[in-house]
Write a structure and sequence with these properties.
CATH topology: mini-chromosome maintenance (MCM) complex, domain 2
Radius of gyration: 19 Å
Strand content: 35-45%
CATH superfamily: N-utilization substance G protein NusG, insert domain
Strand order of the largest sheet: 2-1-7-6
Largest sheet: 4 strands, antiparallel
CATH architecture: Sandwich
Shape: elongated
Helix content: 10-25%
Amino acid sequence: MKKNLWFVLAALALAALAFFLLHRGDAGAMARVDIAGGETMRLPLNRDGTFEIEGAAFPVTLQVKDGAVRFINSVCPDHICEHTGWLQLEGEVAVCAPAGVSVTVE
């Protein structure tokens, strides 16, 4: 009987671990992209993809992968935004000031 109880507890622990690993990114996490001039768009962080942001002073490209977002290309003169790296935690922000684009994880 004790052996069966330990087996069930171990199986439940493994199931919980598998669930956590498969769902470690918040399914509701979003990247809010604010573009100078008032336009705002939202990108779900649970769907990988590359997104061209138009309507800014300079075109920029964002990449969403594995629950995180980053600038991967900007036509601005300094490219500081591209060196910011991945954003994945709520409240993290990256800005391409010359293009007038900011990205915030919500």
